[in-house]
Amino acid sequence: MPDEHIPGKLIGSIVAVGSLAFIGILTETVMTVLFPQLMREFNVDTATVQWITTIYLLVVAATMPLSSYLNRRFKHRTLFLAAVALAVLGSLIMIVGHAFPVILIARVIQGMGSGVATPLMINIILEQSPKSKVGRLMGVGSLVITVAPAIGPTVGGAVSSILPWRAIFVIVIPIILLVSLPVGLKCVEQHRPTEEARLNSLQFVSIVLALCGLVMFLNQAGVAVSAAVSGGSATVSAVFAVVSLIVGLGALLFFGWSSKRSFSPLIRLGWLRDPMVLLHLIAYMLLPIVGIGFGYVITNVAQLSLGTSAFLSGALVLPGALIGAFFAPVGGMLYDRFGPVRPILGAFFAAICGPILLLVFSMRLTPVTLAGFYFIFGFGYSLGFSNIMTNALRNIAPQFMPDGNAVFNTCLQFGGAAGTALFSTILSVAQAGAGEEGSTTFRHATAVGGSWTFATMIGIVAIAICCLIAAFRIGAKRNSRL
Prior knowledge:
Shape: globular
Radius of gyration: 22 Å
Distance between the termini: 20 Å
Helix content: over 70%
């Protein structure tokens, strides 16, 4: 295949829309570092302040499934301007809001902006990239998804150590208005006609209920387990978790049943009958559990076991994030040159070495080894992660790519939410009854919880690798018949 030229306007479009998505995902993880300050300022407890992150994830997860409909119905520029308006409005409310419910409203608006911007960026890449450059441009897009949550704790710790927490959003607005907006207005183009697509309201409500129910199940199940182990009352949280799970699974089953029988479904799901694509999707949902959850684990193990400051604990993820910023496009280039098998499997065999080393040294970690072993994982993860989605979407019909994009991005968000809930629960269980924070017993318990967490990570990555191997075997059999 000849070496095709990447249009300058395509690069500008990726920069404009990608920066919006990057800022949205960045502020998601920045806020977790600010919880102690926010609890004091708004006089709320830990369970309440977590809604700042939880409600954001719920809104993003609920908006993602709309991306297929929005991509077919509206022009890219219209969606881009909507994402800009939502991002700016949400940031302004974060700056001036002095009541906790107002802050939650701001997070809802910001979540809607991220839910529009991230799939829009992927759709632009898939629709407008030269075929020989799809892998590397998807790698660039992957920077937004993988690097932003990784550096969030570092940015939050750095800014909050010298400025009020609202300064983060004061900084964000000029970037959006002076960089993203003008570049997007000049570069975002429409390469495919829009359609008279109709919004299936019943399916939209059902998928929102499904995602909200499943995310709330993860959140409340973690709260219930932590409360039970520490000797507190877990009844309310446990009941809420069970009800959320029933509602979530029931709504998800209804959505799938309704989509099969609908003339104009919200998301077309027929392409999921291909087992090769489905195995890619399972791996793509499992890996962010580790990739995004790692930021939470490192910062907490560093502070609560190794006794580092909040700023240093956030900085420990920076080397792994920076290597991700460099190697995500490199992974895409390798995909374009060698195909999917060696670049993807080689990357994740390298990535799994990180949590293996962390498990082996879990009871005698230092800040340097913690950052170094995460660096190994970050290298492999960034090298291969975006190629999974690229390869899956290349194996479905072009008209279904917006639907595939919506499903993959939704699963990514769900996987990230699941990772934080899962690993926080494991650490809480290990810390229960271990004494006061800062004591020798508490630090030891946190280290034990870290070892449990690293073992869980190894299992998750191993399952994802097995799914990918099975998918590639199916693909090889198909090719041999041709």
